[in-house]
User: Which sequence fits this backbone?
């Protein structure tokens, strides 16, 4: 089943904040080449949760979704580990 229409507001905040955190996470991982820094992910999640004006549970959902999007470079780290093995 496909949903047609605009994104819910929670996803808009999460996508925007996650896409802001994504380059910082990627850059820090690329510089260290062996560890994933969660600083940009946490910062993006905190900003998204603070700016979102919904209730507490919805703010938590926005923060978690931001973390998932901002943490996509972890897949790059996983690929590096698998190639080393």
Assistant:
């Amino acid at each position: 089943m496909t949903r047609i229409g605009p994104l819910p507001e929670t996803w808009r905040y999460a996508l925007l904040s996650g896409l802001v955190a994504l380059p910082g996470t990627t850059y820090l991982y690329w510089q260290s080449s062996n560890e994933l820094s969660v600083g940009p992910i946490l910062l993006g999640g905190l900003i998204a949760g603070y700016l979102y004006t919904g209730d507490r549970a919805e703010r938590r959902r926005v923060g978690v979704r931001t973390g998932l999007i901002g943490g996509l470079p972890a897949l790059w780290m996983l690929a590096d580990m698998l190639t080393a093995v």
About this structure: The two ends are 39 Å apart (CA to CA).
